[in-house]
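Dataset card, provenance and construction

Sequences and ligand SMILES were collected as paired inputs. For each pair, a complete structure of the chain with the small molecule in place was predicted and serialized as structure tokens. The example below shows a pair involving magnesium ion. Curators did not alter the output after generation; any descriptive sentences attached to a record were derived from the structure itself.
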Amino acid sequence: MALPFTIVIPTYNEAGGIERLLRSLADLFATHGLDGEVIVVDDNSPDGTGAIVDRLAAELPVRALHRPGKLGLSSGVIAGWKAARPQSQALGAMDADFSHDIAALPKMVAALESGAYGLAVGSRYVPGGGISNWPKRRIVTSRVACLLARPLSAVKDVTSGFFLVKRDAIEGVELDPIGFKIGLEVIAKGHYGKAVEIPYVFTDRVVGESKLNEKEIVNYLKQLGKLYAARLLPHGRSA
Ligand SMILES: Nc1nc2c(ncn2[C@@H]2O[C@H](COP(=O)(O)OP(=O)(O)O)[C@@H](O)[C@H]2O)c(=O)[nH]1
Ligand SMILES: [Mg+2]
């Protein structure tokens, strides 16, 4: 039997592509016999993304969670997981802009289903993975970001926003809702046993705009500081 899972897509101004993505996911679930639920967490996008998802909820395995304003990517994913249907045994995240190749998703589900892994990470940085059209500046930023987190995990693509984790691996784990990198929180703090990286080629968005800005880079450094402090300071203390 297929492993029931919930995948959360945080959105802010993704009206240009969200319908195509949700239809593609529904087709993928049907083709591969996946028992997936999609929750779109929309932060009152001025471009009407939330209303598009509400309309599609009548015909696709998707529902929208509406928040009153732009509250951040990671906190959106966590809010979506809290709203996941009870039968979902795995929780995941992906972006709304087609950067994450949905063809990797059935492999991620299969990895968890096999029982060998508690976490499957869509990865740009293992053989077969890559980045197709990012500007050099973004590639360097991403590489440095991963390097800075190296001591925290053996996972190569530690800043990936595309992953699926067993629900019980993060139950009771305090995930910091700061910034963009919810994947790093899960990778650094989850009790998932073994992780596997599933290669995919990241493709930069062709519709809409990136929401990554300097503030999110500072948030990432703060997040790293907290994770290192939690590892290095005596038990029970944090920075
Ligand atoms: N709900 C919500 N989603 C967000 C927020 N910031 C970014 N996102 C979504 O998070 C995903 C990744 O953002 P994106 O701008 O593509 O970042 P990039 O790929 O690093 O350039 C997209 O689906 C965005 O719409 C936010 O504050 N709230
Ligand atoms: Mg993007």
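Derived descriptions for this record:
Helices lie at 18-32, 49-56, 73-82, 105-113, 136-148, 167-170, 182-189, 214-232.
The mean pLDDT is 96.
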